[in-house]
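[agent] plan:
  1. take the single chain provided in the ticket
  2. run structure prediction with default settings
  3. attach structure tokens to the ticket
  4. add a short note for the reviewer (M.T.)
[agent] executing step 1
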Amino acid sequence: MEATTRHTGAFLMRTPDALFTPERFDAESRQMADATERFVREQVAPYVKRLEHGEPAQMREILIDAAMLGLLGIDIPPEFGGLGLPKPTSALITEKTALQPSFAVSHAVHTSVGSLPLLLFGTEAQQRHYLPKLTAGEYIGAYALTEPDAGSDALAGRTRAERMGDHYRITGNKIWITNAGFADLFVTFAKVDGERFTAFLVERSPGLRVEREEHKLGLHGSSTCRVVYDGVVVPAANRLGEEGEGAYVALYTLNLGRFKIGAAALGIAKEAWRIGRDYARERTQFGRPIIEYPLMWRKLAWGAMLMHAVESATYRLADDLEQAFRAEGTDRQQVWRAAAAQFAAECALIKVAATEALHQVVDDALQIHGGYGYSEEYPIAALYRDTRVNRIYEGTNEINRLNLVERLAYALRKGLWTPQPTGAPATDTVEATLQTLRGLCCDALRGLAPHPEPPQPMVEPLADALIALYLLDSAHARAQQTQQPAHQAMVALYHEHVRRQLAGWSADLSPLVGRAPITVEAQPLAPLYEGVWETIRAGL
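[agent] step 2 finished; step 3 output follows
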């Protein structure tokens, strides 16, 4: 595989010669995934009601149990007690933890944004002191970035850190802090002398006050609190990076955290789809199981197609991240930080694509239940509530669409990728559609390149075209590799879905590309739905 296929915006030039797909997981990875699923279903699920009724300490005990299986150290190198799993396997484990969303978010905060800052920016002394504790569950991590007046604009935070000899004194307020009720270590962001945005490792200590649990729409089993820093004294040795480098700590960490959210969203979507399918098989109306009615099975076919496309793209990115993390270099942290920055656009893309696919799948699964789906007696109701936040945290999907477009436009200005020629007219072949999409996206990004800030009306259609390109390209390449009829059927349905949106994207982006909109002659959808359903029904 050419090296040029693995860098920011590479998907705008060509498909890699080979893609990692879930079919390539070895037996050991699958065994770890199975063990994780058993743990969640047998050792987490029975405690869900207790967790949801205000016993956050129980979640800490569950996380400690998870540590005994190695689940708190999936991304931490072995020298610190972790497993140091390859990124595809780590994503697969994340999928399985997501089968219980409250546990998933607690686990994800601990293993990603609660631990990754130490991996990316920690000194050797900091890593040797804290990472083994985080891996073993001796310490539980939290990530304290958001403030009452600083959500998407995190750098506008008002929390202050004053240097006092070999210590800092931190004062301010943080909100929506997951794991706060029982966390031991808070990755905290504050402005030194009100100016230099800086990251600190803050242990639970005098002056750090955790207020009551928030009453959230969903995720009732996870701890989410406001945290008050009332002159908390922090040793200077606990600063992460240099003064003023907090933005890098936050953004590099969030890049990888967004990828993890995508993997988790995929796992929850699969569970919601299974619940909807099982109910449709069991529920009888007018003398037949409702799964036999096209208005029902079409929902399942659509959800399966969405999950296939997202899954193909997620594991493509996971492998790209793995290769980037294993790149040669004298400084491991520099290599890892470069990897986190290198695929920031793709991480934002996966976060948006996976969470919006999840929304559609969960919504359809609830609809299949009819009135029963609105009852708390059925698990789909809790999933519906629990998953809504996925499109909000780690940067709203609006912010991530903007990140995706801005990062690719910036990379173009810096010459990190070369625009493809204008695409050919759309036809009914996948290859032609991909060429057309690449041309449209490249021309639009070229039109944006001179603008420091993209015109807001152009962001959403361009981001959506980029997402469709990445997903269709990944799913098509996977189907070509596996030659499985199910994969080919799902690509055919997704392809027609993308073709039907091309005209709209092209019209919206015409001021940037400088040519008339593309016209597309729609093809019948019914046989494509039937093709997907036939492959699903064969496995029921």
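[agent] step 4 note for reviewer: The first strand starts at residue 141 and ends at 144.
[agent] ticket updated
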